[in-house]
Amino acid sequence: MAAPEERDLTQEQTEKLLQFQDLTGIESMDQCRHTLEQHNWNIEAAVQDRLNEQEGVPSVFNPPPSRPLQVNTADHRIYSYVVSRPQPRGLLGWGYYLIMLPFRFTYYTILDIFRFALRFIRPDPRSRVTDPVGDIVSFMHSFEEKYGRAHPVFYQGTYSQALNDAKRELRFLLVYLHGDDHQDSDEFCRTTLCAPEVISLINTRMLFWACSTNKPEGYRVSQALRENTYPFLAMIMLKDRRMTVVGRLEGLIQPDDLINQLTFIMDANQTYLVSERLEREERNQTQVLRQQQDEAYLASLRADQEKERKKREERERKRRKEEEVQQQKLAEERRRRNLQEEKERKLECLPPEPSPDDPESVKIIFKLPNDSRVERRFHFSQSLTVIHDFLFSLKESPEKFQIEANFPRRVLPCTPSEEWPNPPTLQEAGLSHTEVLFVQDLTDE
Q: Which SUPFAM superfamilies does this entry report, sorted A to Z (predicted)?
């Protein structure tokens, strides 16, 4: 089942929520949702801002005082390899070293004092990062102008973006900080970093991010990694769900030695990446299983709702049918009652039956549709309507009928019509003193 806070989200927002949790490692769904809502559900911007916060970069929604980037560098298991400068050899070498020592000491002392005093006059411009991508592109161009295009593929993005991609892709990230003023930087770039075997290893096994510490972006990373000397390389990877420095290489290292050290660091930490991949696969499988369970639940819920809807419709159909039958019964009862009342009224309105001795009387025998016979006398001067009313008042007679004479065979106009607005009398209809008339049932017509 989906978490309660996900019920009012769309499918797309739920997928972004789960993806954001996977990328950032945040356990709380409420915190993940709050962060995404702050960024209008832009997952790229939310992840970037979250990684910036982890590294010490102020969030755009809650900017704290400026502080350096924070990648986990406190792990006591960090592998550190420092290449010391070679000691002078021979009398001439030691003589040159001792002669230059006071000058070096004086130069670097004065330079440090100058830089320290300059901080009180104006802040270090490198402390304000305004165009990190521009810093990276500028360093790449200056590097290619000085050392050529044969070099490892530089990551063309900010340090935060490089960390994000390395975490998302579960790859090693090699960070190179270039000290422009250091005496070993030039030789390292020419002989080591641009060596074909080094290029091949870096391009196939890791992401490579580099910048000069004279650039604001490089200086910011320098404050986070705290290098001691140059050239400086740091290997970073996802370890224990945090981007962690697992190796530091400092000093003028030779190509073969660099390859050996990088390979050693990667082999020693490969199990963490494998473990993280397995955990991600397990989380993905859990998410897929949860999604399948949610889909199955929704399908079952829809099926139950459909069954309930059909039951309601069936109950409503039965109710309407019963009401319809009841209405028909009531209508039929009203019709029969009205019919009976009409029969009684017609019977009451009939004129008295003439006596058999009356010479103007007519004896009529009616043959009903049920083969029964009814006999009654009428007066010649009476309208055929009286015959119709008499038959209508009988219980045996149908509701609708017509009266037919046999010789000649004809239908008597007993009710008003266009041809006979006023029905004729018995005498006008040509009836004799004794007649047999047939009642034809018209109820079903």
A: Thioredoxin-like, UBA-like, Ubiquitin-like
